[in-house]
Specification:
The chain contains 11 helices and 8 strands. It has 271 residues and is α/β, with parallel strands linked by helices. It has an 8-stranded mixed sheet, with helices on both faces. Helix 1 crosses helix 11 and helix 4 packs across helix 6. The longest helix is centred in the last third of the chain and has 22 residues. The radius of gyration is 18 Å and the shape is globular.
């Protein structure tokens, strides 16, 4: 399955992505975790040391690689390859931790850098390759929205999980993401509650969200706060909410029984 995780800024997308990635990997699954948020924190949440995080260079920062693969220089105009070779990049650019391959896409900076067509092209090509051809379980920690997904790329997402905290503003953001997801052709969407203080928070979200698409929730946890303070993975804390993550995994697998049928019908768009 190819799973994108989105939601309002600060809602807990990275925490959920890291917990799911570590839990699935511990079960022996091949996991590719992609940090698609410019404020890249996924590697740290997965438990990668600060020293090894420095080895994870965002793809968008690799201007020379982008020019090499696309044949496009730093100026405007000219011809360049729209479908560059990227099948080797998930392996060569990733770092590995606890059985998980980790990639960072980064953010393309426009100011004073001239044309960035080659960087846009290689990031888009890599996303298409990962979503259409990689066989691993892919988990993508997205930006606050999903506007940066192209239509062809978005249609290759098997499941979009929107993380929602108990509050009207978070629900409004979730509704906006759902409308955009439908416009982009994402057929399967589900919700996970985050930062739940008590049963009333769970009841609030359960009543506000479609029951058949509500995968469960993660309590506001001292383990998550302590892990952040100490630059550790919440998964490695003794009081981590792992039983809740297991419940969410079970529901993801139930959805996967149908979404994998769709995934196997994808035809790569080389343009």
């Amino acid at each position: 399955m190819k799973i994108a995780i989105a939601g309002k800024g600060g809602v807990g997308k990275t925490t959920l992505t890291s917990l799911l990635a570590r839990s699935f990997a511990k079960e022996g699954m091949r996991v590719l975790a992609i940090d698609a948020d410019p404020d890249a924190n996924l590697a740290g949440a997965l438990g990668v040391s600060s020293e090894n995080r420095e080895k994870l260079v965002p793809l968008a920062n690799m201007k020379d690689l982008a020019i090499e693969r696309t044949g496009h220089g730093s100026g405007f105009g000219g011809f360049f390859v729209l479908n560059p070779t990227v099948d080797d990049l998930p392996e060569t650019l990733s770092i590995k931790h606890e059985g998980i391959r980790i990639l960072s896409l980064g953010s393309i900076r426009h100011g004073g850098s001239g044309c960035v067509c080659s960087q846009h092209t290689i990031v888009r090509a890599l996303m298409n390759h990962i979503l259409l051809k990689e066989n691993d379980l892919v988990l993508m920690d997205m930006e606050a929205g999903i506007e940066h997904l192209g239509r062809g790329t978005a249609e290759a997402v098997d499941l979009l999980i929107v993380v929602v905290e108990p509050g009207r503003r978070s629900l409004e953001t979730a509704a906006q993401i759902e409308r955009l997801a439908k416009d982009l052709g994402i057929e399967n969407l589900a919700y996970v509650g985050s930062k739940l203080r008590d049963s009333s928070d769970m009841d609030f979200l359960s009543s506000a969200l479609p029951n058949e698409r509500f995968l469960g929730g993660i309590q506001l946890s001292d383990a998550i706060r302590t892990a952040d303070l100490n630059d550790l993975s919440p998964f490695d804390q003794d009081d981590a909410p792992l039983s809740q993550i297991k419940d969410i995994q079970t529901r993801i697998r139930a959805l996967g029984a149908t979404t994998n049928v769709k995934a196997n019908t994808h035809v790569p768009d080389e343009n």
